[in-house]
Amino acid sequence: MTDGGGRRELSGAVLGAVVAGVLALSASGQRWADVTAQRRSPLPPVSGALSGGDVAPLVTAAGLVLLAAAVALLAVRGVGRAAVGLVTAAAGGALVWSGVRVLTGGVADAAVDLPGLSGSSIVSTSVDASPVWPVLALVAGLLALAAGLVTTVRGRSWPAMGRRYERTPATVRPRTDEDRAQDAWKALDRGEDPTEPPPPARNADPV
């Protein structure tokens, strides 16, 4: 693989981890569901709201892990980069699992933990869940999973991001007749005789 192709893949993996992390954190802070509990008469019904952190706490944790992984991808190489890819894929898997769990009815389990929505006075509980934020977490998980798997498989061969800026040491060019002629003219300009050998270097007097 050429350095150019490796850098493009590395940039894509970093961008994928960043976008997935931002999507996950954005989704976790939103209102995922409204819960209403009917209580025994004459008590009125009570209601509450569930955020992504209440329903799927792994979403927030996975988002933070992905942002940290994006930075780590730029800092490490070789086996270390492949290990970061595994962590990225694991965070993506957690997001996928959280999104699927909520979309398949996992909100009711979190509703019982809301204050006032559990106890012997509760007759029934209804949940009005929004599918938008679980789907967003699911999309973020798939993106992170793809970035992590690509990094795990191909990341060892990717170059370091700063390699293009490294300078190779300059090679010493042998002196030519033209160089020596120019040195002679410069010596004449200074009033020196270019045919005389240079004076020997003097050592510093010992103390």
Automatic annotation (TrEMBL):
The chain crosses the membrane at residues 57-76, 83-100, 132-153. Residues 165-207 are annotated as: Disordered. InterPro entries: Trp_biosyn_TM_oprn/chp (IPR019051). It comes from Blastococcus saxobsidens. This is Trp biosynthesis-associated membrane protein. Residues 174-193 have a biased composition (Basic and acidic residues). Keywords: Membrane, Transmembrane, Transmembrane helix.
